[in-house]
Automatic annotation (TrEMBL), chain B:
EC number: 1.4.4.2
Similarity annotation: Belongs to the GcvP family. N-terminal subunit subfamily.
Gene of this entry: gcvPA
Protein name: Probable glycine dehydrogenase (decarboxylating) subunit 1
One GO term of the biological process aspect: glycine decarboxylation via glycine cleavage system
Reaction catalysis annotation: N(6)-[(R)-lipoyl]-L-lysyl-[glycine-cleavage complex H protein] + glycine + H(+) = N(6)-[(R)-S(8)-aminomethyldihydrolipoyl]-L-lysyl-[glycine-cleavage complex H protein] + CO2
Subunit annotation: The glycine cleavage system is composed of four proteins: P, T, L and H. In this organism, the P 'protein' is a heterodimer of two subunits.
GO molecular function: glycine dehydrogenase (decarboxylating) activity
Length: 486, 457
């Protein structure tokens, strides 16, 4: 039974004088603080933080945790986000002494094990992508996009070309155009065709001589492999441009097809999707990128290299774009990816994609009978159904269905994305779910489509809260505890 | 495979339902010539036991607290992490949950983020906080973007030379090719020279970036710098050390308009540089330009207090190329750890932690400069928990190598960042370092190249 009392804020629980933390006495001869730091630099009072016992803190956060859905407790058929199982062994291994407690400025001689791991991971990512050079530094997928686009800009500069345009399909992740703009490019969107692929006419029309990069998500956000991939890549390359692959959907093609082989010059991975790093309620992820040999000089420093049997950090990279993040990168996330990949081996990685695609097509074959899937009989690892008919006939929206699923203990699918499908419901089962779970999900989904519209409009009914007023939250923002109501 | 459920029977039944004969057929939409015709060339599959042995062997090749006492700083710090932080953040309901786009089933994360924002505002004395960014360095770059986008007239960014060199490198990467002029103000005494700061600011200055405590550990006169900057209407961005705010005046009290920090010190391990926690707080004027996720309080349809992601119209998934930044994530789990840490420490605990750092660092500086070959470099400047030493024999690498032999990570050589400081290194002393360790490091340094035997900590 959920603790219904647990709704207070830390500031409301606080009692002056309560203490959770006792530090040891100072074991060096103490001096008056005013002798160590100028008096006018010292705070007049300490920050107003809550005063609680350890037990209160533990109960507060434990109770909060029970108000979350999570992969450990629920099924998340969440398209584009690849919410797969997060293996426990990875958590333990990433927390090993000698892994979790390394300082980023330790001398190379004292981190040979870590450097070996990172060096091997660079090679593994290159092998899976078919792109020979790798930087592990970017801190998230969007950060990887930005980093790769900066490298592209520097590459064009190095060959004396001024290229200003980045093309991205209208179904792409919003980060694609945002990253392009931040890297100093002009983002232009290309239409999707009725099958969800790149509209080739629109693409050809917009493929100008000053194109720098085409950003493409393949498999696409509709869960389809871009059938004109070769033609698209060739056309971009003929114009002297580069192809960037948004690797969000790599879970569908591990060991089956490699972006480097099908035309990409650069890509990022989302290790928190493809390689099972936990999403952490919003982060951290990581955004390692792989690129062709000709783009390698522009990658951020450092890169791990091997000289004989010694691993070293190569900072001597004069053409590098520089740094995009402090220290080495999100190493903790990378260690989990390394463990996931080694837990599978080459055949296992292929099985991941095979089962992810099998599960998705199985769900598709069941769902399409009551929720149309406008783009195709087959999909890769995900598909997009549409509640447009239900909305027209009975006033039931994609949002209503998503919210009602919460009542039945399923996380909602991604809804209203991609924007190219009306009332989109984007479903991605992942490889780490059983047929029983998928069957239960389909049955529930069907049951919901038969339910009373009013019941659905007010769903969810069993969750701690229901349909919060988001307009009010944005119109009169209350962004910290003591602001509210003022 | 441990994580796959489908048995051959399941697969057969599913294929029948789909109406195909093989899984291979499902990949039919990938043109034949675009497919990989071989197995990936990767290490063979490892079971859990083998993998554990493999990772343990790799870990054993690294120096860790079991083998070495860490006096390294420079933006990553060996602070103590209370057990409750690990225990709570390890709950699967936190770390395996998704971004809280469905508020009804994410109230735990949303409330925790809202409380994080509240704690950061209280910690910094600022009006607003987002729900975190990647790390301290990229948070600083995002702060400059925010300042540049806020309709100020100038496009010149003034950065003090005492700001973390890697943070300054990130600024160069982000802005140098976009036509933004970055002026670096030298800090020859390890601390800003106010006259030089003043001389570097003019009507075209958009913002002034200061770090305090700075990269060398020195505490800057942020209030004076802010006064100078504000005279020219420049935005003041302060990068701070969250632990130091147990003792030092808050950025908001010193006149900072935007405050950013590396927040891993608040309850997260060093883990070789990441993932870390980018803290960003600011004044009200930036509310619609603040990058990253923001959680707001509201009511649900039954009138119950609750929390949602808000002000999303700034964000990339709605605004695409017109978004305030391309960031699509936060460091939710590490923001959570910071909140738990601050809740455990409370005001008294934070002050004690900061005081222990300062007392021990000053003791260490005094002891280490008693070693013949070592001298302080910025002796007169006030410092918090880090300080710079010069090896008068000019052999920093040799000195630190001997310290490693004796069981100490003795300092960060500064030649890698500043060629003129080839003979200098940065020493950091957190609350975890003991007098015994400090004294032993002192003895080790005194015995270097003297023929005496080294002393183990």
């Amino acid at each position: 039974m959920r603790n219904q009392q647990a709704t207070q804020l830390l500031s409301e629980l606080s009692h002056p004088g309560r203490v959770a933390m006792h530090w040891p006495a100072c074991d060096v001869p103490e001096q008056p603080l005013e002798d160590l730091l100028p008096a006018n630099f010292l705070a007049d009072e300490t920050p107003r933080l809550p005063e609680l016992t350890e037990g209160e803190v533990v109960r507060h956060y434990t109770n909060l945790s029970t108000k979350n859905m999570s992969v450990d407790t629920h099924y998340y058929p969440l398209g584009s986000c690849t919410m797969k199982y997060n293996p426990k062994r990875n958590e333990r291994l990433a927390s090993l002494p000698g892994i979790v407690d390394l300082h980023p400025y330790q001398d190379e001689s004292t981190i040979q094990g870590m450097l070996q791991l990172l060096y091997e991971l660079q090679g593994i990512f290159s092998e899976i992508s078919g792109l020979p050079a790798c930087s592990l530094q970017p801190a998230a997928g969007a950060h990887g996009e930005l980093t790769a686009l900066m490298a592209a800009a520097k590459y064009f500069k190095s060959i004396g070309e001024e290229r200003k345009v980045v093309l991205a399909p209208d179904s792409s992740h919003g980060t694609n155009p945002a990253s392009a703009q931040m890297a100093g490019f002009k983002a232009i969107s290309i239409k999707s065709d009725p099958n969800g692929g790149v509209d080739m006419d629109d693409f050809r029309k917009k493929l100008t001589d000053d194109i720098a990069v085409l950003m493409i998500t393949n498999p696409s956000t509709l869960g389809l492999f871009e059938k004109n991939m070769r033609e698209i890549a060739d056309a971009v390359h003929e114009k002297g441009g580069l192809v960037y692959l948004d690797g969000a959907n790599m879970n569908a093609i591990l060991g089956i097809a490699r972006p480097g082989d099908f035309g990409a010059d650069m890509m990022h991975y989302n290790p928190h999707k493809t390689f099972s790093g936990p999403h952490g309620g919003g982060g951290p992820g990581a955004g390692p990128i792989c690129v062709t040999e000709k783009l390698k000089p522009f990658l951020p420093s450092p890169i791990v290299e091997k000289e004989g049997d010694r691993y070293t950090l190569d900072f001597n990279r004069p053409e590098s774009i520089g740094r995009v993040r402090s220290f080495f990168g999100n190493t903790g996330v990378l260690v989990r990816a390394y463990c996931y990949i080694l837990s599978h081996g080459p055949q296992g990685l292929r099985e991941i994609s095979e089962n992810a695609v099998l599960n998705a097509n199985y769900l598709l074959s069941k769902v399409k009978h009551f929720l149309p899937v406008p783009r195709g009989e087959r999909c890769m690892h995900e598909f997009v159904a549409s509640a447009a008919d239900l909305k027209k006939e009975r006033g039931i929206t994609a949002m209503d269905i998503g919210k009602r699923l919460l009542d039945y203990g399923f996380h909602a699918p991604t809804v209203y994305f991609p924007l190219t499908i009306p009332e989109a419901i984007m479903v991605e089962p992942t490889e780490t779910e059983s047929k029983e779970t998928l069957d239960a999900f389909v049955q529930t989904l069907f049951k919901i489509t038969e339910e009373d519209a009013e019941l659905l409009h007010e769903a969810p009914h069993t969750t701690p809260i229901s349909r919060p007023n988001e307009v009010q939250a944005a119109r009169s923002p209350c962004l910290r505890a003591d602001f509210c109501g003022s | 495979m441990s994580y796959l459920y489908n048995t051959p029977d399941d697969q057969a039944a599913m294929l029948t339902s789909i109406g195909v004969d093989s899984i291979e057929e499902l990949f039919g939409t990938i043109p034949e010539d675009l497919r990989l015709k071989r197995d990936l060339n990767l290490p063979p599959q490892m079971g859990e036991l083998e993998l554990t042995q493999h990772l343990s062997a790799l870990a054993a090749k690294n120096a860790s607290p079991a083998t070495h006492a860490c006096f390294l700083g420079g933006g990553s710090y060996d602070h103590f992490v209370p057990a409750a932080v690990d225990a709570l953040a390890s709950r699967g309901e936190f770390y395996t949950s998704y971004t809280p786009y469905q508020p009804e089933v994410s109230q735990g994360n949303l409330q925790a983020m809202f409380e994080y924002q509240t704690l950061i505002c209280d910690l910094t004395g600022m009006d607003l906080s987002n729900a975190s960014l990647y790390d301290g360095g990229s948070a600083l770059a995002e702060a400059v973007i925010m300042a540049l986008n806020t309709g100020k007239r100038g496009e010149k960014v003034v950065v003090l030379g005492s700001v973390h060199p890697e943070y300054r490198q990130i600024l160069q990467t982000y802005f140098i090719d976009l036509g933004i002029e970055i002026i670096e103000v030298a800090c020859p005494d390890g601390i800003a020279d106010l006259a030089q700061v003043e001389a570097s600011i003019d009507a075209s200055t958009n913002c002034v970036v200061v770090q305090s405590p700075n990269f060398f550990g020195g505490v800057e006169d942020v209030a004076a710098i802010a006064e100078i900057a504000h005279k020219s209407d420049a935005v003041v961005i302060q990068s701070f050390d969250p632990i130091s705010l147990g003792l030092l005046k808050r950025p908001g009290d010193l006149g900072a308009d935007i405050a950013v920090a590396e927040g891993h010190s608040l309850g997260s391990p060093m883990q070789y540089g990441g993932p870390y926690l980018g803290i960003m707080a600011c004044n009200d004027q930036f509310v619609r330009r603040l990058p990253g996720r923001i959680v707001g309080q509201t009511e649900d349809r039954r009138g119950k207090r609750c929390w949602v992601l808000t002000l999303q119209t700034r964000e990339q998934h709605i605004r695409r190329e017109k978004a305030t930044s391309n960031i699509c994530t936060n460091q939710g789990l590490f923001a959570l750890r910071a909140s738990i840490y601050l809740s455990l420490l409370g005001p008294g605990g934070l002050k004690q932690a900061a005081t222990l750092c300062t007392q021990k660092a000053h003791y260490a500086q005094q002891k280490l400069t008693e070693v013949d070959r070592l001298e302080t470099v910025f002796g007169g400047s006030p410092f918090f928990k880090e300080f710079v030493l010069r090896d008068t024999q000019g052999n920093v690498d040799g000195l630190l190598a001997e310290a490693r032999e004796a069981g100490f990570l003795g300092g960060v050589p500064l030649g890698q960042f500043f060629p003129e400081m080839e003979d200098c290194f940065l020493v950091c002393v957190t609350e975890k370092r003991t007098k015994t360790e400090i004294d032993a490091l002192t003895r080790t340094f005194s015995l270097c190249h003297t023929g005496g035997s080294t002393i183990h900590a």
